[in-house]
Specification:
Elements (H helix, E strand, L loop, with lengths): L2 H8 L11 E5 L3 E5 L3 E3 L4 E6 L6 E6 L12 H5 L2 E4 L8 E9 L2 E3 L5 E8 L3 E5 L10 E7 L5 E6 L2 E9 L1 E2 L5 E7 L8 E8 L6 E3 L5 E3 L9 E4 L4 E2 L4 E8 L5 E6 L5 E5 L1 E4 L2 E10 L6 E8 L13 E9 L3 E6 L3 E3 L4 E7 L5 E6 L7 E4 L1 E3 L2 E8 L8 E9 L2 E6 L5 E6 L25 H27 L3 H6 L1
Length: 480
């Protein structure tokens, strides 16, 4: 018995009267599904077999069970290698091969084609712990179904040839899941996935696909900047909008929160030449918005994202109702050059205190809480102070279990710095390591004061000269 006849018998088919055909002497054809091999129930699909030489006839075979539906196709279409399905059902699912004949010779069988029908409710696909993955790193993808299926399939978008299959884990409440490992990832490609669930008794009848999960793999190109107005400390119900921008001309931006399983994408706009940015409105603030955010940018012609922005902490106040107080030593009005300490205190047992200044660009200062005088407190030293330290301060407290949720703020404390502006030494002109302040040599106000003082001195000099001249004696005048 020839090898080709043995294969056909295993498929449950035979060549009938064509036993004289020389089997397997022609090159194998190609078999493909149009528009794809994974089709939603009720949708049309066509299996196309294509040989390399002049073909007289085509045949389509299904593994294990004969494809009885093929007999209902018009002969003219079959002769051309077309096997259309107007509305696919589970009857059509399975593994197919095809073959063609020419002048008493048959071809080899084509490669296997798995035709899958999707019919059940879709599972959910998520990345653990986050869809943001470092270049070259591994990531775990979890597919979960509310139905107790015993198998799952993971497919990478654009690569249907080798999907991953895993057996399920089952939960007592009836749902099932599987965990896939994806290794390694690089920023030069897009990494998008879907997953399916199925019953092993019908391995080619799957659920509908999960929503697409795209992994974000930051690259090394210039990082954008991330900002929030009016400041990083928000109160519930305020509208929160984060802005990601860059002078690298990125066409799109993505925003993500560390630890979350999703991220947001927005197209970039150019408010001015050489600058692109995107706004991410997150709506009215709730406690769930607290966290650490970053953003990345990318060009439309590239699949590679930029390096991530510096982290931006969004802090939500008014979560705890403990009273926090803020005081200053030696007092709220100090001379330029003095040392000052701001003291934040609370009766509640908090782990951290935060100090903010209205209008400051730098993030809040953080210090661990210390127990003293029956209260928990933190001392924020400043100095020597300059006019740049003047302003309105508030303090908050937080717990280490969630550092992004804060207490109600203390009453505002206004710090006033008196005295003429001084020229700062190089060490003073740098950022203070404890306070994070950025002193300036002179403010506009100080320059105006110096100008007015100089003008007053000139006027006084003129008046003094006139007074001395008027007291001179007549003899002095005659000598001249």
């Amino acid at each position: 018995m020839t090898p080709i006849l043995m294969v056909l018998i295993c498929l449950g088919l035979s060549l009938g009267p064509r036993t004289h055909v020389q089997a397997g002497t022609l090159p194998k054809p190609t078999l493909r599904a149009e528009p794809g091999s994974v089709i939603t129930q009720g949708s049309p699909v066509t299996l196309r077999c294509q040989g390399r030489l002049q073909v007289q006839a085509y045949r389509l075979y299904r593994e294990k069970n004969p494809a009885s539906w093929v007999r209902r196709i018009q002969r003219e279409l079959v002769k051309k290698g077309y096997f259309p399905i107007a509305s696919i059902t589970s009857e059509h699912a399975g593994r197919y091969r095809c073959q063609y004949y020419s002048r008493n010779h048959s071809s080899e069988l084509s490669d296997l084609l798995e035709l899958v029908v999707t019919a059940y409710s879709k599972p959910t696909l998520s990345a653990l712990p986050s869809p943001v993955v470092a270049s070259g790193g591994n990531v775990t993808l979890q597919c979960v179904s509310q139905v107790a299926f015993d198998g799952f399939v993971l497919c990478k978008e654009g690569e249907d040839e080798h999907p991953q299959r895993l057996n399920s884990h089952f939960h007592a409440r009836g749902w099932s899941w599987a965990v896939f490992s994806v290794v390694p990832v690089s920023p030069s490609r897009r990494w998008s996935y879907r997953c399916y669930s199925y019953d092993s008794r019908s391995p080619y009848v799957w659920s509908l696909p999960s929503d697409v999960l795209e992994l974000l793999v930051p690259g090394v190109s210039k990082k954008p900047s991330l900002s929030v107005q009016p400041g990083p400390v928000m109160t519930p119900a305020e509208n929160l909008t984060l802005q990601c921008g860059s002078d690298a001309g990125y066409d799109r931006f993505v925003l993500y929160k560390e630890g979350e399983r999703d991220f947001l994408q927005r197209p970039g706009r150019q408010p001015q030449a050489g600058l692109s940015q995107a706004n991410f409105p997150l709506g009215p603030v709730s406690h769930s918005h607290g966290g650490c955010y970053r953003c990345c940018g990318a060009h439309n012609l590239s699949s590679e994202w930029s390096a991530p922005s510096d982290p931006l902490d969004i802090l939500i106040s008014e979560h705890f109702y403990d009273t926090v107080s803020l005081s200053v030593q030696p007092g709220p009005t100090v001379a330029s050059g003095e040392n000052v300490t701001l003291l934040c205190q609370s009766w509640g047992q908090f782990h951290t205190f935060l100090l903010t200044k209205e209008g400051a660009a730098h993030p809040p200062l953080r210090l661990r809480s210390e127990h003293g005088a029956h209260q928990h407190q933190a001392e924020f030293p400043m100095g020597p102070v300059t006019s740049a330290h003047a302003g309105t301060y508030r303090c908050y407290s937080s717990l280490s279990s969630n550092p992004y949720l804060l207490s109600h703020p203390s009453d505002p404390l206004e710090l006033m710095v008196s005295g003429a502006a001084e020229t700062l030494s190089p060490s003073q002109n740098q950022t203070d390591s404890k306070t994070g302040q950025h002193p300036q040599d002179y403010t506009v106000e100080n320059l105006i004061r110096m100008g007015v003082a100089g003008l007053v001195l000139v006027v006084l000099g003129i008046l003094l000269f006139e007074a001395q001249h008027s007291r001179r004696s007549p003899q002095d005048a005659a000598c001249r």
